[in-house]
Structures
1.
Amino acid sequence: MINIKSIAIKNKNKKQLFNSQLLLVFIIILICIIATLVNKKFLSLNNIINIFQQIAVLGIVSSGVGMLLVAGEIDISVGNQVSLLGVILAMVIQKVLGLPDGKNIIPGLAPFAIPLAVIITILSGAFLGFLNGIFVIKTKAPSFIITLGFSLVYSGIALLLTNGASYMLFGHFETLGRGKLFNFIPISIFFFLLAIITAFIILKYTKYGRFLYAVGGNREAAYVSGIKTQKIILIAYVIVGILSSIAALILISRVGSALANTGDSYSLDALAAVIVGGIALSGGRGNAISIFLGVILIGLINNSLIIMNVNPFARGLVIGLVMIIAVTSNYLSNK
Amino acid sequence: MNQKKILENIKINKSYPGVQALLDVDFDLEYGEVHALVGQNGAGKSTLIEINAGSIKPDSGTIIFENKSFKYFDPDQSIEFGIQTVHQENKLVEELSVAENIYLYDLPHKFGFINYSDIIKNTIDLLNSLNITSISPNSKIKDLSFTEKKLISIAKACSRNAKILILDEPTASLDAKGKNILFEIIHNYIKLGHSVIYISHQLEEIFEICNRVTVLKDGKKIATHMIKDIKMEDIIHEMIGQFSITLYNRKQNKLPKKENDIVEVIDYHREGVVNHISFTVAKGEIFGIAGLVGSGRTELARLIFGLDKKDSGKLIYCGEDITPISPNDAIKKGVGFLTEDRKSNGLILIRPIFENISLVQLAKNLDIFLNLSKEKSETNKISSELSIKTPSNYQIVKNLSGGNQQKVVLAKWLFADSRILIIDEPTVGIDIGSKSEIYKLIDELTISGKIIIIISSDNPELVSMCDRIGVMKNGQLIKILEGNDIKEENILFYSMGTIKEKGVD
């Protein structure tokens, strides 16, 4: 027998994700209105493009973290991955080009410096993800602990490689981070949108994406259903690593040099973005639109604080509060 | 009031939504007796002991303890009165020592610090008084054997001045030596004038240790007997009742058997769990596996499906070796497994119906992209064939009733075109209406040529559905019932009765 109460619960559950996304859109519009009232420049096309450029790197990292969260796993080493991969990228470019003093390691390799550095960076990214993943699935320890450990390892390696100094690019490899299409739209925005669209397609239209939801929703049931759950999780970590490497390419290209901690803040920002976007830490829920809206919200908060002349030190405070409010409201609406 | 009685229950009633767990049950316990409580699953034994232990409040009725009457006990009260329950699974803290565990609730202390020499001394005295001499009070629980842990659980219960011990299946998985020590402890304990409520499915033990026995069935008390006045067969008859119920009438019995159309389960073994089990099932046949919880039924199914590691075992389908080595391998070879707990490992509760239905089929094929429109129409088709009641297949499974959830699990395995289906507890937690629908579905599957193995604790269900029933006990397949031998009392006789056990350890 289906009674009226259970129908009401059903409708509530069905619309829950949709509602929380609608709420996010509402909050985003609200922030836009307030920021515009304070400073009219906020809604200018330039500023909007500016916002998107600012969140491009965050968006790419968050796409990976979001998919991982759907599978019920977490990676808090992404920021350190970005930092380390940035150092590797800049280091390879310097060594191969023989910067700054002209002593290149292998003469004749210089023309291939950029493609070589890019390939090495992406492969390294895949490897870092693989390391995280293999330890998570083999030890069966909480992924929070494993990736916390690896975040220190990656950060340590980056410090050792740089010795605390920065690797300058001296004007090389600038297009990706600073280039603009038609002299107008920054190239990095395309990579951001590409990452989100890829996540959207994977989660919605591929078998792999479906398995991510199954693994995150009930791992044991997924395994009994014949899904190779460990393989699914391992691949998700590798995807996160590859997206970290692409984020590193864009970030270092834009900044023009690599420090051992250039990308560290993305660990928590990416997590904040996907959680604010409505992807549950418990797994099995959420989609690429959640990731997109979460990233936009974090970007907007950052930008509007600057444009409204708020003390920049208040940024962490505001993002932290937004995150707590998001999680609390999710909890209350689930009750 | 009778001075001989320490505890008396009068007209106890307890109902849960849809179930009358206890109906006007009377029960009494005398000083210095061991009183057995027997009945099939769902007879109401657990509810009755939990009411006396104070963890459940009865809807109505009176509890009389030492001539004082109560509406109910709360947990503190029952501890104060000296009523202690030893559960089937141990509730000891593995990382602490024997002495610490025994006195965990009342650690002797001086100035806020634990007085270790006192608790060690008390523990030694306690263990000596119970004649448990082989266990050191300083050993950690995790270093003890299963039997030793059980003895410590009992010692712990005795330590709190217990006047009534409630033992729930105390001999389950206990070896012969442990059983003897346990019985000795019980003998010494009742000599002090204390009493024991003894719950066991092992009827032969009841004849060894108990003074009286009370039989429950479907929440009602059938009778109380002096053990010396009754035979085991009579107890079994009382547990079953006079009329055996037919839950479902199969449309047709066995298809004409062809030589090759069988699946052979050959020599499945896992040390200490499943003991060299072999049987065959023909196409169009339903093979039942009966036995008590813990007899190795589910474990056998998990071995066959490749979920757990086995020491030996082969699965032959029509002459071809299809032994699965993992669930993924099993589904590719057409073996399906409907687990007994659909919520914990049968369904992705927070995902929609259609995703759950197509999951196994997706895990089986090699596609990269989903065909959403085809998936939608095909899952809609199977969902209406099985008449899953839902406004749409986008509904998340959590919101469905138990019966409809079970149909989703069935749909999932049928959608993947499984040839062999192992169904563990097909109708547990399902209302009567859905039950008969599920029986009908299973019956139709048999007619369409699927090979079906049903594992169940519901004996009337096995009797109504199965062509043959294998009875398991202590990891062994001790009897295969066929034809006219398929009766509830035979199942009970073989799974609970006095068949000489071989050591499983």
Note: The mean pLDDT of chain B is 88.
2.
Amino acid sequence: MRERSWAGYLRKDGRKGIRNHLLVVYTVECASFVAQEIARGEENVHVIGFPGCYDNDYAIRLMLVLATHPNIGGVLCVGLGCEYTQPRVIAEAVRESGRPAEWFFIQERGGTRNSIELGKGHLRTLRTQADDDAVRVPMGWADLTIGAECGGSDGTSGLAGNPVVGRAYDHLVDLGGTAIFEEVVEMIGLRDLMIGRAASSEAAVQLGAAYDKAVSYCKAVQQFSIAPGNFAGGLTTIEEKSMGAFAKSGSRAIEGVLRVSEAPPRAGLWLLDSVPDSHFMQFGYTNPNDTEGIMDLVATGAQIILFITGRGSVIGSAVAPLIKVTGNSRTYKNMTEDMDFNAGRILSGEISLEEASVELMDLIADVAGGQTSKPEGLGHREFFLMYKHQDAPSLSAGCRQ
Amino acid sequence: MCAEITCSAFQVHTSDNVATLLGEAGGGALVSVVGPAAGSVVEAREKIQMGHKIALAEIAEGAAVQKFGVAIGVATSRIAPGDWVHLHNCRSQLDEGSSALDLHTGVRKGAQHA
């Protein structure tokens, strides 16, 4: 694996971004149309927000960490004026992080058209400030945090798509970088295997607890992550399906378990627990779609997301570019404009797993250096956030040293 | 359906005793094994669909069915090289329900809504 270096953006907290995007944040669904219209046609402006009028700690934490994400250079917060979530508070947190931020309430600005015009004016100012403030510095593998998730999986995902990401994760960890994987509910049956990969006794306790909670969750909502179509497609047991998903974690030691919106305290391989905690409304639902899972990964500070698909997928991501990997050569051909990497060549024998992983790492470095990924180039910047109950990450958690 | 010599199955790990068919194999088809431990050929003893597993070695009743280098289940009867390995001869070590599923559709036998 060769050393790679590219120019990044140094933030005041010491983290480095690979993009200098602006973010428009709406604080209730009622403000979302205005927020989307403000961003329409604007280069490098992404939109995130929370639909609920009543706020939610999990959602607020997630929006705050996205608004101060290494890839973000400035933020505009747009509220309606009567919701619980306060755009002023978000803007202040962004300013404290050393980034320019503005905010306003639509009710105080005379309605839709005036608010859009005002917002576009703010974006012009924010863009100038973000460009002026940009500190370009060299970046390398050790500065990268990458997240991985799979969706639209098929029989190739466990054989090629997830293993090539796992091998790339091994390289990234060996080079001093940070790799994050999630979807504990798709690791059912692998408790001993997961704990066997723990980097420390504390990590072992965390992995066991995350696993046990996922099993309780699956039992409570009466849904294990295996369906008739999986069996008909050739998967025989939950262990077999889980192993296919777990393959994207590679083979290195797992440092510990992160909770949503928690940044890894040090480099290495980490498991992200995005399963809700049990509380007075029971568990509620875990991530209802791929996009919320991606947002949870971005909220760890990941600058790039790897998305592994078999059947195909046409989503991208706000804040962090998505690189799409498929293990299915037919899907790659059918959806070439959406697919960044064809791991199906491993199955046809054209290329070894190791060769493919080196090629994938090179693509990651290219995208980190500014090359647009396929979803990014198509203008994809999906965002999804819903109510979820998860206790705040504890500063005394065993993964912090 | 694969022609006899072009059919292949992917073995993930060198210790695996099953491989995944990359195309449909007819009974008697010669299946070449690709992947980390490539090179061997196994004769399919029955028709096996794409994405399903073919046994690469004999697996005794009660022995582990090995894929990804780990036990993904336990053989419920003796499995011969070339056999189709699925719900009829392999069960989960955790999920007792998997042995009560229809072999071809994966739908629970006797399910009210099926």
Note: Chain B touches chain A at residues 8, 10, 12, 20-22, 34, 36, 38, 49-53, 65, 67-68, 70-73, 85-87, 90-95, 98, 101, 104-107 (CB under 8 Å).
3.
Amino acid sequence: MYFIDQYTYQILNLYRTHLELIDTIPIGFTGTPGERPSPVFTNAISDDVLYFGPTVNFSNAGVLVRIRSISPQYDWMANNDNPPQDTPVNAIAGIAGQVLPILPLVRPFFVQRQGRLQFIFTNDTVAPITGGLWTWRALRLTNPINGGWSYSLGLNYAAGQTAQQT
Amino acid sequence: MRPDKRRNKHDGYWQDDNGMMTTGAGCDLRTGNWAGSKLDSGDYIGAAWGASPYLTPYAEAIAANYSIQIPWYYSQKVSVQSGGFNRSIFTTRPYLYDVLIIGMSAKSISNPAFTPLIGLQIMDLQRAIPWVSPNTVGYAPLGSLAGIDLNPMPILKLPEAFFLPAHTMMRIETTAITEENVGLIEATITFVGIQLVNPPAFTTPETIKMPNGDVIKVGSRMPWLSTVPFGRQEFDPARGRMWGLWGLIQGERAMQFLPPADCDVEIHDAYSDIFDAAVIPPDQVQFLTIKLTDMRSRSDWTPGRAPATAVLGSERQAFPGIPFTKPHLLLTGHRVAISLQNNSITNVIESGVLTLRGVRLCEY
């Protein structure tokens, strides 16, 4: 399901301990068609986190989502039409009851401690749901080495360091 | 330093005096800390057949010693009588060559709805190390070991290839993981692997070198499964405490612990039978929640309870065991705590179990 690529290994190598993290966030739909509740966020974790893949506990691909990382501030969804076309939830998250209930990101996303991801959900206009839980499968990175990974470090960071030393 | 793992620094790697295993799940076995190398089970995480290389680095290193490698299948019909703690045992016939068992498959003979309720305990008779850790349940549901029928995943890869030495029998114990009497449950199970043909004068390798440089014994990595009830053992006023009568009534919460492992264990993924309608109606599964914690770390894995569907897989999914994001190293003697809650307001969960799958790291 997941593939640990070189980029991910470089991040992992800057931490002594990696713990499984399963973060569940209530969406708060009230069952109103097309409703757009206030944005919800991942829990602020006291350690750096690598997010691997999300899942939702309902079976409704008519729900839309827009994701941003608050720190660093990146917008994941590129469509900026007016009004913007948000992304159907089944393009990002696995759906409970399907054969692949967790959908891995193409590459894990790194967030420094206390950092958060923001989600703006839109309920289905035809068959709206009530409640809704969004869950991330992630790795919590503890005991950092030299301060751990930073947003400014990129692929081949370690190779660059070696070149500087030589 | 743990007294049972004395190590020397050698060629940049920590090794035992006799050059034995040093890492598991990419972590140093002395400290449990990340060793900064590679994952011992490979960079692909997940047991779906064909979604990752069939051979793990360990299996690849063993197979590399043999010049002739042929596909190998071993099929066996199993029959278990439900409605009580009925067990049956059979042994496989010893085989001429060494074998690497990579995965398992199963085909229903009786009603397919009950096939996942077959529980298995497997060992080879040379070493007699059980695949399933002995605890409350002590058997692994068939769905945690094998792909079943025409589900999305017809073959399930074992967490680690199992090296079956030539001329060695396997002992397979079966039972029904339910208290309900649904009659005789029958299926054909198939082990899928590679036979390693050894020419005359060839001797089976005793050790192999892992990609990170560790030298480990052949046979020191083997499948590990641990099954606990989803809930607790219930009391039936008429029948007492029966085998398989595990449950959780509406709104109830229970704690389960894996038994302290007698070896280091890499935990890879998690399976459960809660997706079977006989356990709880499908529309109520979303109300089951779970929280996992490694008692060593004192750091919860989940800030809150997660829906069980986000943590546990089933034979109906592409990954019958939903993988952890990275294999987790459970050090010798440590335990995993599993907190379970049934938030359904209408349904009891009955005969539900969950199985953690992984790799046992032992020297013997």
Note: Confidence is low (pLDDT under 50) at residues 1-15 of chain B.
